[in-house]
Structure formats: C-alpha cells, structure tokens
C-alpha cells in the first residue's frame, strides 16, 4: 500500500462512526478468542496427562500483574476509557509471545503442528488488525483510553529441549492467551453495548 493510499485509508477509518468501529473490533476479538480456544483443544488432544501436573498456574501468566475485572458485572462498572486501555494493554502484551508461539509451532512435537501453526499465524493477523482498529478507536475516546500498561514477556524464545517441556510451555502460553483473549473480547463487547445504549442485561 502506497503512503498516500495508507493516509487515505486511515482517514476513512477515522470517519467511520464509533459504533461501527466497535462492531468490527468485537468481531475481530471474538475470532481471536475462538481461535485460541480451538488451539487449546487441539493441543489437549495430544498433551501428556503428567504434563498438566507440571503446568504453571494462571497467576504465572505474564499479564497477571494487570488488574482487570473478573466478570461482566465488574466490567460494567469500569469506565469506557479504562476498558479500552485494558484491552489495548492486553493485546499489546501478546505481540512478542505470539511471535514465539508462531516460531515454535513449526517444529512442535505434535501431530497437528501444521494446523496449529496456521491458526497461530491467523491469530497474529487478527491481533495486528484489531490493534490498528483499537488505536483509531482510542484516539476518539481521549487520553485515558490511549494509555497502555506495558506487560513485558520475559519467557524467552526457547521453550526447551525435551518434548514434554516444549509441549508444557507451549500449552501454558496458549492457556494464558485464551484467558486474555476472552478478557479482550468481553471488554469490547461491553463497550459495544454501551455505545449502542443497550440495557446492561443485554450486553
């Protein structure tokens, strides 16, 4: 895409009503969560039972330091700008780990590694597209929505040498991703409901 064309596309996106942008963002986040759920199920089909016993706890996910609403009821009490900030922070935190998963999937000791690899690439594309959309949306919502909490991934790029360790770390990252993609999707659905002025029980 040429620079002039890119500027034109960004300008067109900025002219789209917030409701429509939130609809698109919600569709992307829903797809991300669906993919992460499918990936978790695919991994579980050939995951050694003793591997689950060695899995770290959810509190060990690299995004666990971020204080977020635990359910929809709590999310409904959070301001629109803070929900947008939380969604963007979580999404940004997965740029590096998704790259690690993408690289590791190519040689993953799993019979479905080709399918897993293609789903992770699709996840990366949706994540990038959603991030671009949320950048535009947050610009319409003010400085608070544009604030991002940085949650660095410090797990490194090497998932290990033996089969069980690699599968264990890969599966743990996927479980964290599934949890966070669910949060992102929930926050954006609440924002979409508010923009459409729906009653809370319909969100």
UniProtKB/TrEMBL annotation:
SUPFAM superfamilies recorded: 4-helical cytokines
InterPro entries assigned: 4_helix_cytokine-like_core, Somatotropin/Prolactin, Somatotropin_CS
Protein keywords: Disulfide bond, Hormone, Secreted, Signal
Pfam families in the record: Hormone_1 (PF00103)
Location in or out of the cell: Secreted
Name of this protein: Prolactin
Family affiliation: Belongs to the somatotropin/prolactin family.
Keyword Membrane assigned: no
Principal subcellular localization: secreted
GO process terms (BP): positive regulation of cell population proliferation; positive regulation of receptor signaling pathway via JAK-STAT; response to nutrient levels
Origin superkingdom: Eukaryota
Species for this entry: Poecilia mexicana
One Gene Ontology molecular-function label: hormone activity
GO cellular component assignments: extracellular space
């Amino acid at each position: 895409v040429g620079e002039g064309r890119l500027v034109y596309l960004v300008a067109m996106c900025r002219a789209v009503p917030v409701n429509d942008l939130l609809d698109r963002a919600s569709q992307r986040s829903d797809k991300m969560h669906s993919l992460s759920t499918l990936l978790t199920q695919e991994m579980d089909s050939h995951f050694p039972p003793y591997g689950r016993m060695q899995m770290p706890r959810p509190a060990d996910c690299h995004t666990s330091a971020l204080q977020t609403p635990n359910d929809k009821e709590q999310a409904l009490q959070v301001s629109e700008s803070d929900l947008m900030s939380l969604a963007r922070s979580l999404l940004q935190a997965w740029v590096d780990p998704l790259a690690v998963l993408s690289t590791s999937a190519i040689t993953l000791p799993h019979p479905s590694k080709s399918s897993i690899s293609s789903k992770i690439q699709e996840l990366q594309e949706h994540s990038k597209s959603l991030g671009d959309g949320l950048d535009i949306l947050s610009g319409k919502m003010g400085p608070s929505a544009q604030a991002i909490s940085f949650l660095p991934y410090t797990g490194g790029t090497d998932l290990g040498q033996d089969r069980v360790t690699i599968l264990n770390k890969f599966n743990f990252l996927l479980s964290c991703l599934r949890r966070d993609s669910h949060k992102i999707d929930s926050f954006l659905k609440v924002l979409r409901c508010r923009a459409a002025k729906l009653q809370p029980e319909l969100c």
